[in-house]
Amino acid sequence: MDSSPPIPVGEESSRNWLELPRDVTLTILMKLGAVETLDHAQFVCKLWYNLCKDPSMWTSIELDNIDYYATDSSRYEKMAQNAVDRSCGCLVSISIEHFATDHLLMYIADRSSGLKCLRFACCYSLSEISNAVKKLPLLEELELTLCSVTEEEIKAVGLSCPLIKTFKLNHQGSRDPYFANDKEAFYIAETMPRLRNLQIIGNGLTNSGLEALLNGCTYLESLDIRSCFHIDLSGDLGNRCVEQIKCLQRPYDPTDDYKFVTSTDYESDYDDYENDFDDADFLSDDEYYEFSEDSELTDTEGMFDYD
Of 7, 119, 269, 285, which sits most exposed with the smallest number of CB within 10 A? Predict the structure, then answer.
């Protein structure tokens, strides 16, 4: 039986959380995401406002899983710039989904020469990867998932970032022979010999590209080639993969742990999600607009300023 004395009524509710030691409060605030910190936490009190400007709060920045489609993307870009500024050059890792632009990419690269981990997903307008990575010589991990990346940019990554150990270049795979292409695999094998982890979900490489990777990236420990439908692992190449790679994920292995669409062959994927919808998801145009007209909209223009 617990013999500790009972807490007097009202004492717990009247506890002053502002009296916590600075380092404890800082640790708590660091558990929040960038959006929660910039939108809410920093405005609680003057102490929290000052703590939220501490560079140690911003060595790692994650701007993922945000409601991007509900507002103007410029709001999130301004938020990301503000977070980078607060890091005071101490940024080590940053992850952004949906809204990254070339301007934001170069903004990060110009102010974060010590960056080790850079992750972009669903950022379709990037075209300055080659110029940005030249300013990030310490980069060890790079992810470009569902981003528009050329073979030359892949080559630039390998030549500019000699320390890179983890590379994720994920697409949406297709069984159509038209999309079979080994160029990306060849450039990776040629310029990234120190790779330990490679994830290329949905890539169009064939057995030739896979063999080039095994020959060029001899330190490779983890290889994820799920939804790479132009590879045949039934022969000697499959045996070599098993012998050389500690953690191998094959073309037809499950992708339950991967949150993005892995294939453009939508007909084959239909059964996986058709039961996730109810009748409300299939309103007619007339029903949709009738519903929309009854909805109340809130004008949030000018509410957020991160200058």
Answer: 285
